[in-house]
Amino acid sequence: MWRLIEALNLSEEQATRVFPTVNRFQTERQPLRREKRELLWRLRDALYDRASEEEISAVVGKLDANLADLCELRMKQWSELREVLTPEQQAKSMLFREEARRRARRHRHPGYLVNPSHYGHGGRWMTRHWEPNNRTVAD
Asked: What is the pLDDT, as a whole number, of residue 103?
């Protein structure tokens, strides 16, 4: 959070309005993120286990709804933050968040951008991955 204060050069008044908003939305997103992780696990398992199209479609539908809920929360948060931030701070916030995502992705998943099909459960490299020709292979 301190990086955000420095990056946006928030006034004390702005900080007292921004932090509660950010914290509230983070708390609201936590169960949705947990559900998303679980649904992704189920989707991977369904593909590996060669589940029926109906089973896969059910998980995809739940994942779509989850992602829509997450997106809606992000938009609500952004709407509230825009009321507090100046246009310049809004622009800096967008750039700050994008850079933070890139840093986190590189830190958590060093090979993620190189070959995303190898990324697996819990941040570990998988011993098998899904091939386009519909077969599971060992690494």
From this structure: 83
By C-alpha distance, which of 21, 131, 132 is closest to 82?
A: 21
Q: Averaged in consecutive runs of 10 residues, what is the pLDDT profile of the chain (139 residues)?
A: 79 91 94 96 92 94 97 96 94 88 74 46 44 45
Structural domain of 114? 110-139
What pTM was computed for the model? 0.69
Structure tokens at 62: 């739940």
Q: Pick from 54, 55, 62: which is nearest to 38 by CA?
A: 62
Residues 21 and 39 occupy one common structural domain:
yes
Indicate the number of domains in the chain. 2
- pLDDT given at position 128: 44
- The SS3 assignment for 49 reads coil
Residue 98 contacts by C-beta under 8 Å, 6 or more apart in sequence? none
131 shares a domain with 89:
no
How many whole angstroms separate alpha carbon 55 and alpha carbon 51? 6
Instruction: Classify burial at 86, counting beta carbons within 10 Å of its beta carbon; exposed 0-12, middle 13-18, buried 19 or more.
Output: middle
